[in-house]
């Protein structure tokens, strides 16, 4: 700061001081090309980035990023990609694939799934609200902004506070006026409204948007987003997400199921190549044609608008859903063996409704929308019923044991029962409850079994379990 502040007024302004700043950054960077590397090949911030941050802190009123642009200093932050990976195993493969092309700033879970974030020499237990507040207070942001960031992190109810806090740390320099990585990837399982993994972590789209709205200067620097998750490419979904990132130039997603494994890596590398060019118009979903699930790829660009599959006319989709309803009822009742292919088709239909422009709040009544989301959630849980039953039995083992013991009965192992057998056992229990007296523990058990295994309610079987 002092070296560039030639007139010692505590600010960087005027052509002479800007030229001195450029020369100083060139010296720190090790080149004399008026270009500054802010992120190195390992995704780490460089000494030049730290110097810029120190100057911004010393001169909080200086629009430093604008000064550097006027000085024609090409800050090389564009190649970096922020990668939020909700599934550690697949995320590692995707990160490694992207790192052959660009620096990656990774936001992933700990191997043990703990909500702990280590910053410098201190660990923050993010399960504790106070620890979240202390972390946000150390981001160098105005108090009101730090409070909003903390509110956004604390608003997560899906075990993803660590991911949100890590992202906030990467965005904080941008909120202070410094350049940050302009590209973002969010990867994991998706249901159209959230992205989740295998360690009880669920990042709702509204969580991501809340953090972006809490840090508007940083969010305004995000230019390209890739949602590498199922059901996040529908046009209304993209429109909703774009509202939090006002200067987006492009967005990539999938109208239906998204690819995984090597195919996913290939799609992301093509996206990285085309967004690195600085011309969002180069992004084209046909560039992945011929790969698995390429027909589901969807792209929005500021230049061309939305390019992808649209939901069909709502009346046509609802007609198909009505025709499929007897089969769904039979699956739910346990009178028909679960058919993976049929349930996959039903899930596509359910998503086509909830992602439909005409099915959004305000276009249909509340009862229609509630039924649409309930159908989606039930079909999703039926598709993974073996996993659902196993997790349900483990998580609620004490309540199951107490309820059956109160009736003098041995508890069945719901983890080992088919859906039909489970519905039979629940039917026997409910018949037993018709004969008073009924112990309170048995009543609570009935409510748990009906809400969880019978109705497959998201409140009993959260999406992050899947």
Describe the structure.
By secondary structure, the protein is of the alpha/beta class. The chain has four domains: 15-76, no CATH class; 81-307, Rossmann fold (3-Layer(aba) Sandwich); 314-383, no CATH class; 385-465, no CATH class. The chain is 48% helix and 12% strand. It contains 18 helices and 14 strands. The protein has helices at 15-29, 47-58, 64-70, 88-99, 129-137, 143-154, 161-175, 205-214, 216-219, 235-242, 261-276, 314-333, 340-354, 366-383, 385-395, 397-406, 419-432, 440-454, and strands spanning 35-37, 74-76, 81-85, 104-107, 116-119, 122-125, 183-187, 189-190, 194-196, 202-204, 224-228, 250-254, 297-301, 305-307. Helix 6 packs antiparallel against helix 7 and helix 13 runs antiparallel to helix 14 (366-383).
Summary, kept brief:
By secondary structure, the chain is an alpha/beta fold. The protein is 48% helix and 12% strand. The protein folds into 4 domains: 15-76, no CATH class; 81-307, 3-Layer(aba) Sandwich (Rossmann fold), CATH 3.40.50; 314-383, no CATH class; 385-465, no CATH class.
Number of strands: 14
CATH architecture of the largest domain: 3-Layer(aba) Sandwich
Radius of gyration equals 26 Å
Query: Quick one: overall form?
Result: globular
Tell me the major beta sheet. Answer: 7 strands, mixed
CATH class of the largest domain: Alpha Beta
Taken together, the total number of domains comes to 4
Number of helices: 18
Stretches with pLDDT under 50, minimum 5 residues: 69-78
Distance between the termini: 52 Å
Q: Estimate the mean pLDDT confidence.
A: 87
Strand order across the biggest sheet? 4-3-7-11-12-13-14
CATH fold descriptor of the largest domain: Rossmann fold
Percentage of residues in helical conformation: 40-55%
